[in-house]
Amino acid sequence: MSIIKLAVLDGDGIGPEVVKQxxxxxxxxxxxxxxxxxxxxxPVGATAIDQTGEPLPDTTLELCKKSDAxxxxxxxxxxxxxxPSAKVRPEQGLLKLRRELGLYANLRxxxxxxxxxxxxxxxxxxxKGVDMLIVRELxxxxxxxxxxxxxxxxxxFDTCSYSRMExxxxxxxxxxxxxxxxxxxxxxxxANVLESSRLWREVVRKMASEHPEIEVQxxxxxxxAMQLVLNPAQFDVIVTSNMFGDxxxxxxxxxxxxxxxxxxxxxxxxxxxxxxxxxxxxxxxxQNKANPVATILSAAMLLDHLxxxxxxxxxxxxxxxxxxxGVGTGDLRxxxxxxxxxxxxxxxxRV
Length: 351
Ligand code: IPM
Ligand code: MG
Hints:
CATH superfamily of the largest domain: Isopropylmalate Dehydrogenase
Number of domains: 2
Number of helices: 13
Oligomer: single chain
Helix content: 40-55%
CATH architecture of the largest domain: 3-Layer(aba) Sandwich
Low-confidence stretches: none
Bound molecules: 3-isopropylmalic acid, magnesium ion
Largest sheet: 10 strands, mixed
Number of strands: 14
Strand order of the largest sheet: 2-1-3-12-11-4-5-10-8-9
CATH topology of the largest domain: Isopropylmalate Dehydrogenase
Distance between the termini: 19 Å
Strand content: 15-25%
Structural class: alpha/beta
Radius of gyration: 20 Å
């Protein structure tokens, strides 16, 4: 029996509730396949600010570095959202974590479940067959560029800067993913305006010539936002910068019907981090209403990353059959509504 050491950063809001269900499912996987998972919890976000004054305490970061993987819940608290003068913010914890762990690639798969097509506000025939992967650069661009204010406070700036190396390493992952899928890759940028986007194109054009088996297309981000709603099934893999990826991944979540279904993985040089793409959902906290599926599927991505393919597949199968049976949390408007805990029980049971 092998021991798999997980750092658990369940964070704020519904984070702890949904993470608890993912751990239940991981334990079921452990039982079935003979793995032993160990879980070390550490604070991050608003919870960490309350306890230590910092959104990412050093002890939390150290724990992540010596773990096999990080399971992350959610971050954010309404107390900070409308206060532009707040000196520390929960989100800084997440950004620092990405930076310090070198998690430069964020993978966000989006698929429309056949049984849940009716949930999307988009017409069923438009979203049928949607199965795509957004590969978002995560440690560069405008999120991490130089920023500041003029002395009089009346102007402010944020810089979007990318090096060739940063673009190459994320695109390498995108080409690899495309090769393992339907072999289509869209670079989404704003090369008609931004110099940094023109560097992305230069890099991708060169890589495209070295990967003739991949069909590469180039799309401006404004058009991509429209195409994601008009004809989303045309996409296989999308690779894009930090900010564009942030925006487009929320847009594409509408295709799956609920933000509560979408997992993500953040990978890079060392340990990987796995988290649902939704936020802390303060309005749902403590009511057993949150949808744990996104976090449970993030745990499946975690297992895939540790090369435990059968284990990951077992989780996905359990999720699919559970959803297909017509049960779900309220956001899925299911035939039979259950709470967050019951949803976790059902999926763990099926594993
Ligand atoms: C995400 C989130 C974060 C981001 C926030 C919480 C800083 O929106 O993971 O998409 O902008 O990257
Ligand atoms: Mg976002």
